[in-house]
Design brief:
single chain, alpha/beta, eight-stranded parallel barrel, seven-stranded antiparallel β-sheet, 10 helices, 25% helix, 24% strand, globular, binds beta-L-fucopyranose
Length: 473
């Protein structure tokens, strides 16, 4: 963390240097240097690099067997007798999750921490005789296992009587302040646009809320349909678009507006705002725990599909694991997470391109196979297409190609193809559009000692930091 800002300044300076040439090309574009907003902040880079994020839906719905509550639930139903935040954080850390986002308050308004601003909270429940604090225990368990902690604080609140009046904005701000000040560093905050049909009209003061986040937790990333730091990917299957830009135009989207899913799913090439996507989905059909879904935990094939369509498409993968009424992750969910981790490791542990030579246009080719994230190859000045040839030690079988753009410089590649040399002939094995932080392409198995990556179109000079070649199912 310490050197991140220094690194960022160097990167930004270099990026502006690279983009000078881009601006010279775009003679028709308005004068001026590239806006910083088209590049990630250090927090966004760190966010995108973590790849796997856990969501935890827990609250009164866990006890009523519902997905959306009513706001009329009695706090007396909330009593996780075997509550074990340590188990949550341990399981998540063993499975490579970097952040846990907890539903501190869902739409029913029940607060999982003792809030000074409502009685509809854990302080009025029988759990620990009203002296417990779920948010605190989860935050501490995350810290113990080196996982970052995030919160979901539902804007829509079915319990709070001020909802629908301007006072509600202050009520929300007060609750937000409690979460932002009493629980250590908050890495991510979820502002969910969902709202039931019968709900009162209400204009949320997002500006005031976000300003408070910036002031009290300047390193937190803010998630909503329109960012400002991380955007919803437009569906809840956990799938990003095959083309997925980290840039959008924030003016063309707004929170909770229907019909913008496709736009959010793909982003916009050269959009003015860097707002990478988060692919959220649940390991079960529901977000909250329901016993009848114990045998409906997503099979490995589904989790792998989500993996390829999220992490493999320049998106973070956010998986929800709902604790049981007892307060622990269910054994079926834990087992499936472990299997999933093993499967991913079996495929991606051994990069067959590591240390191999790359030749072609541009400079710093060795960066592409050195396993270092922050060294990178850059295309020739002025080039909008480039060809790179990777030579393997001997004819090698593989079925995955992984490409990574060096995102501190932005996202630039718009079209590429991959070829393999087979029987002295170059044959195309796959093609794609965007790359971004990471693009994973599964291909029919190939046997070759030479692979060629042809970047056919890029907005500005391309910069890649890694090429990976893998074999596994
Ligand atoms: C939605 C909510 O309505 C669901 O209950 C869930 O929390 C999901 C992640 O977001 O908007």
């Amino acid at each position: 963390m310490k050197n991140l800002y220094f690194d960022y300044i160097i990167i930004l300076a270099f990026s502006l240097f690279l983009s000078t040439e881009l601006h010279a090309q775009q003679a028709m574009a308005p004068a001026g240097i590239q806006r910083d907003a088209t590049h990630p902040t250090p927090e966004q880079v760190e966010y995108q690099r973590q790849e796997k994020i856990a969501f935890v839906h827990f609250g009164v719905n866990t006890y009523t067997n519902r997905e959306w509550g009513t706001g009329d639930e009695s706090p007396s139903i909330f009593n996780p007798k075997k509550f074990d935040a340590d188990q949550w954080a341990r399981v998540l850390s063993e499975n490579g999750f970097q952040t846990l986002v907890l539903t501190a308050k869902h739409h029913d308004g029940f607060a999982l921490w003792p809030s000074d601003y409502t009685e509809h909270d854990v302080g009025s429940s029988p759990w620990k005789n009203g002296n417990g604090d779920i948010v605190k225990e989860v935050a501490e368990a995350c810290e113990k296992y080196g996982i970052k902690f995030g919160v979901y604080l539902s804007p829509w609140d079915m319990h709070e009587s001020s909802y629908g009046t301007p006072e509600y904005n202050d009520f929300y701000l007060n609750q937000l302040e409690e979460l932002l000040t009493n629980y250590g560093p908050i890495a991510e905050i979820w502002f969910d646009g969902a709202k039931g049909e019968g709900a009162k009209d209400m204009e949320y003061d997002f500006d005031a809320w976000w300003n408070m986040v910036r002031k009290l937790q300047p390193n937190a990333v803010i998630f909503s349909d329109e960012g400002p730091d991380v955007r919803w990917i437009g569906n809840e299957h956990g799938y990003a678009g095959e083309t997925n830009w980290s840039t959008i135009n924030r003016d063309s989207v707004s929170i909770g507006k229907p019909g913008q899913g496709q736009y959010l799913n793909r982003g916009e090439p050269q959009g003015p705002d860097w707002v990478p996507g988060e692919c959220n989905t649940s390991i079960r059909p529901g977000w909250f725990y329901h016993q009848e879904e114990d045998d409906q935990v997503k099979p490995i094939s589904d989790l792998m599909e989500i993996y390829y369509k999220s992490i493999g498409r320049n998106c973070t993968m956010m998986i929800n694991i709902p604790p049981t009424p007892g307060g622990r992750f269910h054994a079926n969910d834990v087992e499936r997470l472990n299997e999933f981790t093993e499967r991913v490791e079996a495929i991606f542990d051994d990069n067959l391109a590591a240390g191999r030579s790359v030749t072609g246009s541009g400079s710093d080719h060795s960066a592409l196979t050195d396993g270092e994230w922050d060294t990178f190859w850059v295309a020739d000045r002025g080039a909008r297409s480039s060809t790179l040839t990777l030579t393997l030690a001997q004819p090698t079988r593989f079925n995955h190609i992984v490409l990574q753009e060096y995102i501190p410089l932005g996202q630039r590649i718009a079209e590429f193809k991959v070829l393999a040399k087979e029987e002295n002939q170059w044959t195309q094995i796959t093609e794609g559009t965007t790359i971004g932080h990471k693009r994973i392409l599964k291909v029919e198995p190939v046997m070759t000692d030479q692979v060629r990556i042809v970047i056919e179109k890029s907005y500005g000079q391309a910069a890649l930091n890694e090429i990976g070649i893998y074999n596994g199912e």
